[in-house]
Design goal:
Elements lengths: L1 H14 L20 H27 L7 H25 L4
Keywords: Membrane, Transmembrane, Transmembrane helix
Protein name: Transmembrane protein
Length: about 100
């Protein structure tokens, strides 16, 4: 059950940067529109937030967190980018057509 919740949380957090014109849904930007660089910054922060929550979940359920190599981070980073694809498509392909 924990794995399912973490995957759904990662899916939601990966798409959050693409659905708002505010930085982290709170800070309004001066130009009024959020550029792709801000979205990528938010995406990186959300990746680390998801990783922190997953680390805490592993500690609370298993009692210890196992060390991970670069392969783990490359895989989870790529998976997070795949999870972010629907939000990217919505923002840059569907939103501009309307």
């Amino acid at each position: 059950m924990t794995q399912t919740i973490l995957l759904l949380l990662a899916l939601v957090l990966a798409n959050m940067p693409w659905f708002s014109e505010r930085l982290f849904f709170v800070i309004p930007l001066k130009g009024g529109t959020k550029h792709a660089g801000w979205c990528l910054l938010e995406l990186i922060v959300m990746y680390f937030v998801t990783g922190g929550i997953a680390h805490y979940a592993e500690l609370s359920t298993m009692g210890q967190a196992f060390p991970q190599g670069w392969e783990f981070y490359a895989t989870t980073g790529s998976l997070f980018l795949v999870f972010a694809f629907p939000g990217f498509v919505y923002r840059y392909f569907w939103l501009n057509r309307a």
